[in-house]
Design a protein that fits this description.
about 220 residues, alpha/beta, five-stranded mixed sheet, about 60% helix
Length: about 220
């Protein structure tokens, strides 16, 4: 069982499970987390539109993969069988639905993401990223574990200014949504992509510390 980070927000506890997008073996990881946490709500690092898409997949579904996705999946196959949409999210949504639990989207909605992308990524950056993607398609991301692999791929593709800014905004958005969701639940299970989990945890911990400091300051006043 993969370790989960547990964060307390008042009477609520957020259990954050990092997952490897694409690996079929993550289904077991997600199901084990449900059994361990016994959540009353589930949050996933997807947008509302993506959750709706998973719930309404046509029988003849064929994934439309970006060049990044193709490179990511090609290397991920070294660690096990892969599938799309990511089995970790499919398992989380199907399990929650079968148990009558609310599924909460915590990633940026499509309209806001489009606006953020256009504001963050210039034409020059897009061209440079396209060139880098071609170069990285020839590279082998040597890693002993899938966890190490996804972190290396993420650093290689998302360390340019505009794309790095987008991921930073996603972390901020997801952290805020998790805190908001936790106020309506007692045991919240959050399924978060491995690449962003550490940043999300750090951001939430910082916000909780700031909130406690403000409370202490108000009591002193």
């Amino acid at each position: 069982m993969r370790d989960m980070k547990r964060l307390s927000n008042g009477d609520s506890t957020i259990h954050i499970l990092p997952v490897i997008r694409g690996l079929k073996s993550e289904i077991g990881v997600v199901i084990d987390a449900f059994a361990k946490v016994d959540p009353d709500a589930v949050a996933v690092s997807l947008s509302k539109e993506e959750i709706d898409g998973i719930r309404n997949l046509p029988e003849d579904y064929e994934p439309e993969l970006s060049r990044y996705d193709e490179i990511y999946i090609q290397g991920l196959r070294r660690y096990g069988e892969v599938a799309a949409p990511p089995p970790c999210y499919v398992a989380a949504i199907e399990t929650a639905d079968s148990e009558g639990l609310p599924v909460i989207p915590i990633d940026i909605d499509e309209a806001s993401y489009t606006e953020l992308y256009c504001a963050s990524v210039s034409g020059t950056a897009l061209f440079r990223n396209s060139t880098r993607t071609w170069y990285l398609s020839k590279r082998q991301f040597a890693a002993d574990t899938p966890e190490e692999y996804v972190l290396r791929v993420d650093r290689a593709f998302n360390n340019m200014g505009g794309f790095k800014l987008i991921e930073k905004e996603r972390v901020s958005w997801m952290s805020a949504e998790l805190l908001r969701a936790s106020k309506m639940t007692n045991r919240l299970l959050a399924i978060v992509e491995y690449e962003r989990q550490q940043e999300v945890v750090g951001t939430i911990e910082k916000k909780l510390t700031e909130a406690r400091t403000d409370e202490d300051r108000n009591e002193d006043d």
